[in-house]
């Protein structure tokens, strides 16, 4: 998706993807992850918007690194959660908003120095891969695959529907696509559920996966 598309969505406050509550799938997954794998992980939240899930994660994690294109989202996240923050300019395209154990990198994820992600234990993707059309999604898969080393895990929440019925975003990600991308990794398809989406009540499947 072109950057201007998302920036204008934020400017016009057309952010139907934003949830006011913690994501229930994350709340189900995280306690198991913390008990079984890592009690104080460093968590990457790519394409994070101003999701409340950052707060939920920050309450349990060592450090959260979010990445978000729209500065409005980064700014509003801290204001709406009543967190004092400071802002550092990394270069002309990237700023970092910081508070407590949360760092939000404001800029294009594909322009961020990958050293920033080197200590990540868990990647939390909710509606991030599905936000991107195929070509850009491939780049995000590639980044995830680079980060999935040792014991790093990806927890992903994706959507699947008949793409001919609706233009994305969100884009449909078939189970086949996801399995093919991660065929050289350990992939668990944790859950699937069906809802209806939009005015035309399209059949919409929510999938959750863990990859390591
Ligand atoms: C569908 S929203 C999901 C936001 C968040 N994950 C949530 O669950 O609320 C996708 C977000 O990705 C951001 N975005 C799109 N392309 C990006 C890029 N290349 N780098 C960083 N953020 C990007 C958009 O501004 C938007 O806030």
Q: Report the CATH architecture of the largest domain.
A: 3-Layer(aba) Sandwich
Distance between the termini: 27 Å
What is the H-and-E element order? HHEHEHEEEEHEHEE
Give the overall average pLDDT.
Answer: 96
**Distinct small-molecule ligands in the complex:** S-adenosylmethionine
Level-1 CATH class name of the largest domain = Alpha Beta
Alpha plus pi helix count: 6
What percent strand? 25-35%
Give the biggest sheet: 9 strands, mixed
Q: Assign the structural class, choosing from mainly alpha, mainly beta, alpha/beta, alpha+beta, or little secondary structure.
A: alpha/beta
What is the CATH topology classification name of the largest domain?
A: Rossmann fold
Q: In order across it, which strands form the biggest sheet? A: 3-4-5-2-1-6-7-9-8
Rg, please? Answer: 16 Å
Overall geometry comes to globular
Tell me which oligomeric state these chains represent.
single chain
Please bin the fraction of helical residues.
Answer: 25-40%
């Amino acid at each position: 998706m072109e950057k201007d598309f998302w920036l204008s969505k934020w400017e016009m406050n057309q952010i139907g993807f934003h949830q006011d509550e913690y994501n229930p799938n994350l709340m189900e997954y995280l306690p198991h992850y913390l008990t079984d794998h890592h009690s104080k992980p460093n968590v990457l939240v790519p394409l994070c918007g101003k999701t409340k899930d950052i707060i939920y994660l920050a309450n349990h994690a060592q450090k959260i690194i979010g990445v978000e294109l729209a500065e409005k989202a980064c700014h509003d996240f801290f204001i709406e959660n009543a967190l004092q923050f400071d802002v550092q300019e990394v270069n002309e395209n990237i700023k970092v908003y910081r508070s407590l154990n949360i760092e939000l990198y404001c800029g294009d994820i594909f322009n961020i120095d990958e050293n920033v992600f080197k200590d990540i234990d868990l990647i939390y993707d909710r509606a991030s891969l599905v936000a991107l059309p195929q070509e850009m999604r491939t780049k995000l898969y590639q980044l995830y695959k680079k980060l999935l080393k040792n014991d790093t895990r990806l927890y992903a929440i994706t959507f699947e529907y008949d793409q001919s019925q609706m233009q994305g975003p969100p884009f449909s990600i078939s189970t086949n696509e996801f399995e093919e991308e991660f065929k050289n990794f350990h992939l668990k398809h944790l859950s699937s559920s069906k809802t209806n989406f939009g005015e035309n009540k399209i059949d919409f499947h929510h999938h959750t996966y863990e990859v390591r």
